[in-house]
Amino acid sequence: MYFLSGWPKRLLCPLESLEQPLRIQTDPQRAFFAVLSPSQLSIWYCRPSVLIVSYKELAKAASQFGPYKEAEWRPDSTMIAVSTANGYILFFEIPSERDKYLYEPMYPKGSPHLKGTLHYKEEQCAPSLNLEVKKVLDLQASITSLQSTLEDLLVATADGFLHLVHWDGMTNGRKAINLCTVPFSVDLQSSRAGSFLGFEDVYIRDMEYCATLDGFAVVFNDGRVGFITPMSSRFTAEQLHGVWAQDVIDGTCVAVNNKYRLMAFGCANGSVQVYTIDTTTGAMQFSHKLELTPKQYPDIWNKTGPVKLIRWSPDSCVVMVTWECGGLSLWSVFGAQLICTLGGDFAYQSDGAKKDPLKINSMTWGSEGYHLWVIDGISPSNMKPERDGSNEARQFGILQFHFIKSALTVNPCMSNQEQVLLQGEDRLYLNCGDATQAQSPRNTSAHSEHKPTRERGPFSDGSLDSQGLSTLLGHRHWHVVQIHSTYLESNWPIRFSAIDKLGQNVAVVGKFGFAHYSLLTKKWKLFGNITQEQNMMVTGGLAWWNDFIVLACYNLNDHQEELRIYLRTSNLDNAFAHITKVQADTLLLSVFRDIVILFRADCSICLYSIERSLNPTASIQVLQEVSMSRYIPHPFLVVSVTLTSVRTETGITLKMPQQACEAESIMLNLAGQLIMLQRDRSGPQIRDKDNNPNQRKHLPFCAPVVLAQSVENVWTTCRINKQKRHLLEALWLSCGGAGMKVWLPLFPRDHRKPHSFLSRRIMLPFHINIYPLAVLFEDALVLGAVNDTVLYDCLYTQTSAREHLEVLFPFSIVERTSQIYLHHILRQLLVRNLGEQALLLAHSCATLPYFPHVLELMLHEVLEEEATSREPIPDPLLPTVAKFITEFPLFLQTVVHCARKTEYALWNYLFAAVGNPKDLFEECLMAQDLDTAASYLIILQNMEVPAVSRQHATLLFNTALEQGKWDLCRHMIRFLKAIGSGETETPPATPTTQEPSSSSGFEFFRHRSISLSQSAENLHSKFNLTKTLSMPSGPSGKRWSKDSDCAENMYIDMMLWRHARRLLEEIKLKDLGCFAAQLGFELIGWLCKERARAARVDDFVFALKKLHKDFLWPFPVIPASSINSPFKNGKYKTAGIFFTPVLT
């Protein structure tokens, strides 16, 4: 979602003042930010970060007012209200000097930059501002909180009053409300029956206004939290009513999220409690909690101190939290942790020394969430700024953190793509790799967290591209596209971005206009007419439709909302665009096949059909309009809207799979609540065969149905694949800290009639270890990104360490990642006794190269949970999972791989469910899978007495000798010697964690570690075993020591002699030579012993023919003239063929 990038920057201040900044606050448009010091107010420009104006309070006035405490901007950025310690409010007016600008950029002569174009000075130059004290208001009480509304300034004081002050006409507009007269209750249904605060000294410590809830979230000084809302338009004590959050008694601060209607309350125990308002009762309803867990942060999770500050990002998608003891943490809107500076390289230096966490006094987000401005908590005594060499500027106590974010945060129509697209303030990050090689819409790259490709080795199947499996062959680096500097100069910041389905073209939207880039030609395309660019402002996002860019914009010239389509291959000009006027402001835009869906400010949804016309553009026609004003309280609450082919059980028809490509339903994310509007097919329209085929698009929609809560992102696809209908017709949801959910369709097997009690869809929750940014539907993969850090503190000496941010902070980078989710879905289906559906889904994905890893993950996770459970499990799942895995030919490999990666203490529980390991070993031998049998032999060695292990090892050794598996034979020799090297007739001690199984299954012996719980005698024997097994092996190595008279060696010798004797008796000299060379068999000495037994040749003719056949030697050809000429001694004469004896 949001990711930290690079190092933070520290601002340089040109002023002489040594006052440490206390507060920082951006204006509502986030073009400026105010910096507050004890007696000084400064206004800075955001880009570039330069000081514009500063106001210094005189000494006499400073003693009267007291130090500055807080600052609040007027919504139109024309005034600032500053509260002081002695109860005064100073109203500063910010007049701008017309046609006067600061820090004007200088370009060389002949530069093609936009000098003299429309809005040039406004966009590229910092304006000249003044600060003037317009009014001073004395409230005669200490001010605890300031909050700006549209027309008023709300002020809370320590005497328990709430003051409403108008920005204009302040003297006549002042109102004071005693909090003790405001009734509070659990919900609004008990209205006037609510109790009062009842204490003389209760006052508001912190508050924030929520426009979409029309009220104030408040934190009182005694730790209680609540929500105050006016019961009518009048803001008086009689019209106010409050509701409590009953479970919070240690509140410290609050921040509200207008888009999701959430209130985040910081608590003294270090957690953040997030609440919303129940629309039915008006009560405060708990949503979720943000807290550090001891599993992730065992050293610091309960030592953070109280929550100090909470700040939501401008797009309301993430929240930043900081504590009294220091540290920053970033969370998604519903509780998925993204970043925390209390662990890893943020908390420890490269030498392992612990750092002091960064303490934050104040922080605020910059434009579009690309920057976070932070005032660190370094005390003035420790902060001794020094002039640099030029004596022009000094280090200031303000840090600027840089972020890049997913395009889904601002352009949710990207959820139907399979590429990951991140946007920064001046560049894009793509995961699609080299576009010249990406010729299919599924050719993306990802780095798998579980590295499933290593299970199968290098891919050689030619069908990989058709299955999109190239996603597993990528690297962890991004394809970075630098946004054109000419476009950025006049249109910073970047607000929207989109990528096409092929991953070959991207488009970006700044303040005005848009630009697009081709990854094939590596060229940007900008508007040729700058006036056209500056006259359009994209409002509802943009999307790709084939080679066209579809966007909703506002025409500044005509003051008209428009829907425009531009062809990528044409010049970027309005003459080549198709423009359609729209009635209301467009807030969201999405494309489904050949349909464009718009959500407008009047809470209506409009569907358009789009088709390519003969001229170089496309045409648009209105299909249908749907009013949603009955269900949507505020249009700003709609997070995303998309058209899908997803249907409920009333719409699924197994005999008509072609309906999967039709627009069946509208999915609308309303403040985290996913609402579905499905087409109503119960009328006569679907039975009328004479209707126009397009008539289906005009079918009405049913009443909305709520599918899920706490939804952040939604993924669906319009593709069709009959083999993977489960995955392609499913709906995928990201739910923050609750993980992911999938709304999976259920199909009868072999098109049989479904059971009446079986639903056609089911919602399955599951957790993954990454934050999802894209879903590869057919590949069963989730793509994401993760922050990583690199330390560079070793480059600096200890004396200069304090001066470098490179020492205080690691360098942050963003890496691509992915994760398999199929095993989670299979497990959830098995839990719900839907084994048949799980089997259908698994068989459809059995061709994936990491499918064996999927089965192994499912078995391992269920085993770990059930075998280590402290409570008895009434209905264990492991037997069901074991029975499910037996349906696949990889059952034996899956079980042994899982056992090899599991602790020995859990083996009995595992094999009680999957079967006796001796039986599984025999099954491997019958299936001629010797490598898997070798792995089972290790299991038997640890679970059975040595006699049993020797018996099964002998069977495997003989089979390996027969099949010529020489590597396995060498391992077996060492294994048999290890069994006879002093081990008792009892199972060995519990082994420690083992390495993953290798191809032969015996690399475990080379690196097996020693358990600390073993006795000294066992340790001694284990060391002897390790020494024995470290003997060199190979064709040139000695098989065993010649002077060894161990009985185990004799037993091995007998097996080797028996095999060699059989090869010699069958006249397989080539196999005998390979056998001797590979195992170091002393062939010459053994042949001497066997010269009168197995080495004796009785039938020379048969032996010679066998020899020629074995080595592929040709028989000698005798000339025809020599057929009748006998040998000198005729006893060797035969019927026309003569042989020379070669064996003696």
From TrEMBL:
Record domain RIC1 C-terminal alpha solenoid region: where: 823-983
The protein's name in its UniProt record: Guanine nucleotide exchange factor subunit RIC1
Source organism: Strix occidentalis caurina (northern spotted owl)
Localisation per UniProt entry: Cytoplasm, Cytosol; Membrane
A molecular-function term among this protein's GO annotations: guanyl-nucleotide exchange factor activity
GO cellular component terms, A-Z: cytosol; Golgi membrane; Ric1-Rgp1 guanyl-nucleotide exchange factor complex
Entry keyword set: Cytoplasm, Guanine-nucleotide releasing factor, Membrane, Phosphoprotein, Repeat, WD repeat
SUPFAM superfamilies (UniProt xref): WD40 repeat-like
Segments for region (Disordered): 436-463
GO biological process: intracellular protein transport; retrograde transport, endosome to Golgi
UniProt similarity note: Belongs to the RIC1 family.
Record's subunit section: Forms a complex with RGP1; the interaction enhances RAB6A GTPase activity. Interacts (via central domain) with RGP1. Interacts with RAB6A; the interaction is direct with a preference for RAB6A-GDP. Interacts (via C-terminus domain) with RAB33B; the interaction is direct with a preference for RAB33B-GTP. Interacts with GJA1.
Feature: compositional bias, Polar residues: 436-446
Chief subcellular location: cytoplasm
Compositionally biased intervals (Basic and acidic residues): 447-458
Function, in words: The RIC1-RGP1 complex acts as a guanine nucleotide exchange factor (GEF), which activates RAB6A by exchanging bound GDP for free GTP, and may thereby be required for efficient fusion of endosome-derived vesicles with the Golgi compartment. The RIC1-RGP1 complex participates in the recycling of mannose-6-phosphate receptors. Required for phosphorylation and localization of GJA1. Is a regulator of procollagen transport and secretion, and is required for correct cartilage morphogenesis and development of the craniofacial skeleton.
Taxonomic placement: Eukaryota, Metazoa, Chordata, Craniata, Vertebrata
